[in-house]
TrEMBL record:
CDD domains registered for this protein in UniProt: PAP_phosphatase
Native organism: Gossypium darwinii (Darwin's cotton)
Pathway linked to the protein: Signal transduction; phosphatidylinositol signaling pathway
Family named by the database record: Belongs to the inositol monophosphatase superfamily.
EC number: 3.1.3.7
Protein name (Swiss-Prot/TrEMBL): 3'(2'),5'-bisphosphate nucleotidase
Biological classification of the source: Eukaryota, Viridiplantae, Streptophyta, Embryophyta, Tracheophyta
Amino acid sequence: MAYDKELAAAIKAASLAARLCRGLCGFQKVQKALLQSDVRSKRGRNKSPVTVADYGSQALVSFVLQQEFPGEFSLVAEEDSIDLRKDGGGEIVERITKLVNESLTSDGSYGVSLSSEDVLKAIDSGKSEGGSQGRHWVLDPIDGTKGFVRGDQYAVALALLDRGNVVLGVLACPNLPLTSISVAHPHSPNNEVGCLFFAEVGRGTYMQLLDGSSTVKVQVSAVENPEEASFFESYESAHSMHDLSSLIAQKLGVKAAPIRMDSQVKYGALSRGDGAIYLRFPRNGYREKIWDHAAGSIVVTEAGGVVTDAAGKQLDFSKGKYLDLDTGIIVSNQKLMPLLFDAVRASLAEKAKPQP
Ligand SMILES: Nc1ncnc2c1ncn2[C@@H]1O[C@H](COP(=O)(O)O)[C@@H](O)[C@H]1OP(=O)(O)O
Ligand SMILES: [Mg+2]
Ligand SMILES: [Mg+2]
Ligand SMILES: [Mg+2]
């Protein structure tokens, strides 16, 4: 219907990018494990890691979308080529170009080989600022780079904004087990892994294997009693305040220990009912980016869930690269949300009180 062609292209682009990442760091191909030289620190104050796979994934998704939609094209994406163009970047650019070309050859649809400059240009076409007018693709080429480097969870997250609203989202999750993850088995190394979630506005959320087979419609958990609910939060305590989540969980009466996981895989797992709540409270001063929540939020809302900030407001993706938020992001099903919201408000008030 309205966005069918865009959704098909997004699934193709994210699947190819996931294949590129998997070749470097997957349970199936551990022999091709990430080399030390493949991981860099970004410039600036926030020296977050970036790898050849982050760049390769962004180049590939950008190239595929531009092939599928020649003409007007706008992409808001996490990475840029500034560090790659610096002296000494040549070798890493060659590695990225090789990875991108191997992925394109394995797919066979485009019959081209990209030069290093083509790859750098593809990465840089993600410089759009987004906004409330027109259509913009939104990409996190690897969401959860720290998880990727550790061999844990990560996602290729791609969404489309139309006049400021997220209208479709795809989350490729190469390390997510096909069956439910739980507190007891957060990693399930013996289980088959690799899922892709996709959602289009008004049409529900689906999960399939990364090869495109076995598509099923998914729904968030129907749990109404907080004592039976389990909750997700960041693996990294620097990304979200674990002490605040545990206070909220305690006030709510949640019994289970938190399931700690990297990236928007949390939204995917929640959309199929693996847990009932996701709590995210970044430390003061951190500004959330749209590419960290656009795909995940539509995957959850189309599966029947609710995603708001800590004041209960819907996330607004129309303001450019950043989300303008009150304090944090909370996600749950319709039934639990009022209780969760009360527990969040009470916990924030308690934390704000001066300590005796
Ligand atoms: N200091 C930070 N606080 C919160 N989130 C961060 C911080 N630094 C990076 N991130 C981003 O948070 C997301 C990971 O969230 P989670 O903690 O849920 O795994 C990623 O998008 C990561 O970026 P990146 O895409 O570079 O990995
Ligand atoms: Mg990053
Ligand atoms: Mg991210
Ligand atoms: Mg990223």
